[in-house]
User: What shape does this take?
Amino acid sequence: MKIKLLIILLGFLAVPFICYAEKKIDIQSDKNREIFFKCRTVSLIQLISRPEKYNGKFIAVIGFVNLEFEGDAVYLSEEDYRHGIGKNAVRLLINEDIEKNAKKFDNKYCHIAGTFKDTSSLGNDVFSGMITDIKFFQFWGEEKKY
Assistant: This one.
């Protein structure tokens, strides 16, 4: 009985670490999508205000995505994108899979997971950091009608 309880307890303790696993993940897999929706997602506000805290860490964010030449980024809001407020955005280093599906994600809110890089020390970056090694990229959902 004690062994079963110990195994169950260890299983629960391991769940938070699933979010930070850095293995290759199929961005189209429903199973992986469920894992990331259960993970703690960092807000872009947290990421932009404390980039040193997340530097080099595997994180997930939700934001408004713009995919264009030298302008791939996730913005805090659509308004920030429309008004060109790059400091309210994080650059995206997209892979071929995402590039092939760019029309599906462009100018939409998306849920993205990858490794965050703090670029504040560069001083001249238009954006507030970069997300590289993207493992998960999904359309977030339809706009709610009130």
Remarks:
- Residues 99 and 108 are 15 Å apart (CA to CA).
- Helices lie at 2-18, 30-38, 44-49, 51-54, 78-82, 96-100, 102-105.
